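Ticket opened by: R.M.
Priority: normal
Category: complex prediction / small molecule

The reporter submitted a protein together with thiamine diphosphate and asked that the result be attached to this ticket for the collaborator who will pick it up next week. Submitted input follows.
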Amino acid sequence: MTVTDPAILKLTVNNHPGVLSHVAGLFARRAYNLEGVMVRPVPGGPPHLSRMWLLVNEEDRLQQLIRQTEKLVDVISVEQHPMKGSVFESTQQYFT
Amino acid sequence: MNDTDTLAAPPDHKESIAPSASDNGVSEVQSRELSGAQLLIEMLERQGICHIAGVPGGANLPIYDALSGSSIKHVLARHEQGAGFIAQGMARVTGEAQVCFASSGPGATNLVTAVADAMLDSIPLVAITGQVPQAMIGTDAFQEIDTFGLMLPITKHNWLVHSARELMEVIPRAFELALSGRPGPVSIDIPKDVQNELIQVDVLPQPGGRLPDPPVLDAEVDALLARISAAKQPVLMIGGGIVYSGATQELREFAEQLDVPAVQTFMGLGVLPADHRLSLGMLGMHGAPFTNLVLEECDLLVGLGVRFDDRATGKVAAFCPQAEIVHVDIDHSEIGKVFKPVLSITADVGEVLRMAVERLQPATRPQWQSVVQGLKRDHPLQLDGHNDLFRPYGAIKAVASLLDERANVTTDVGQHQMWVAQAYPMVRPRQWISSGGLGTMGFGLPAAIGMALAQPDRKCICFSGDGSLMMNIQEFATAAEHNLDLKVIILNNNHLGLVRQQQTLFYRKNLSAVEFEQRTNFPMAAAAMGVKGVDLSECEDPHDALRQALSEHGPCLINIPISETEMVFPMVAPGGANKDMITGAPA
Ligand SMILES: Cc1ncc(C[n+]2csc(CCOP(=O)(O)OP(=O)(O)O)c2C)c(N)n1
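Result attached by the on-call engineer:
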């Protein structure tokens, strides 16, 4: 399956237990299409932060999706990112 | 099996508690040993909590143990959903965050409806549940459920607390979040071992409160004012955001100075009194004909603290067909959710209005006002039977005529709720509370208890239906226990009236599962729980009986039988356009 124009979001989140639940729960609750997730703690950066990458397929509702995601308490920032240079580009080979 | 038998012996602490705070609110305590439960209760006291509604159980026993020496009065609800709505009633009339307690498992699941209800109506509620000890989480322990997972989609934020020390961060933060920005519920799940954990505490954290709102720019306010002055036929749409922001006065001044009429959402009722020159009443599914018709004509709709709920807008594509939309709301994610506004301000609507009132040029719009007056005159709200005590509008008008504007009003969910929203003269914000977003039957009685606890000097009136009242009728015992001055007025059609109405209008009059074959004797049921019951149909002088029941102090149930064929009109079919109102029963 080829994904048409997926958006990639790069999140900075608190490295709390539960943060992934809050993000996944939001997507389930609002029926947003989530096609990929990658999360790792930010090494060397400020402590207690994680980087979360989301691959979403929501062209029409992307603005709304971003605003809802920004509202989550443990989400510190949300940026859009091109496929090029994203975690999803370099990990394609593991998802065949 | 007994759910309390795994209880560890409570720490013996009472004597060791030092005063928690000095008069100026700054903690100056020496280090002392506190359990998580004691710490929790002290922090709730410092938050200014006076009443907590709840039900104890195995997993929150340490919290109840710590509560017994506290200044906080506990209200023992008869069902956790009742506890949640009692806390909501207190929160809705005061605007302050309120707390409810439940145990794990069934306690937490019973609370879920009240928390979800708070979410949809943006009510600051702090739900605190006990959880099985951490070592048992994930083992399907007795009364273990995933409360964190259950509460996650129905709160602004929620926590599973892992240590007593973490409570010092979580509790103030919970209040801060519940109250800040767009208010809403939060939930805190506390495992029993965390409640029992002893820690050394020297300084307690400052209580959490509402954070400052983002600044509003002059330019944004000027752009808003420019839009309004450029419009020929503008209308304000005012919602719960005005109530929550305490901006009623500013809104009235703003509307008056600019001479712009205003429709109110269900949640915004009371912001403009019905008889105010600029009030167009409630819009939407059960709005007056003229209200929805004015919106057909308007060329600019200014949404102030609203979320464009589907019961207000009807079919979105047909809403305000000629208008551009301007939207002011504190929740950024509401902007653009339903409509793409030509201008939006993400800010506290009260702050925007305060600035606008200072910056505006007063205006008058005689032409537009005369169009509006014409529509009002030609398409009024028909309050059929408003002089007859045994008809819906008549009963509501009779009750209103015996009370003053100090009375608080709540409802359950159904036809009676809509009749009250249409016909009760709401004149001030927070006078009216009702389950708008979730539409929860069973809201009314416990919410009235909450109102009466928070404002004991006001009469608290709950209009209910025979279907809804049954859903939390057990709370009559709670009302009696506290001798609250609340009156439940039941418009009794012995049916699920609003469902019956929908079946009549939209399902070929195929009445399916809407009649109660076993009638309930409500005055008797109330009496069984220590609440006086009056059946107006059995009184020689029902008006006088009503007057007496309302005027004397104490909880009372007033039964008013009405016909099951009564309907709420106008009605817009679900999914229909607001202009297509049904105004009478089919032949
Ligand atoms: C908890 C819950 N269950 C079901 C519904 C669906 N529902 C909406 S109104 C209604 C009937 C309400 O009947 P009643 O309380 O007697 O009020 P009436 O409409 O007769 O005034 C029902 C079942 C609901 N809103 N809430």
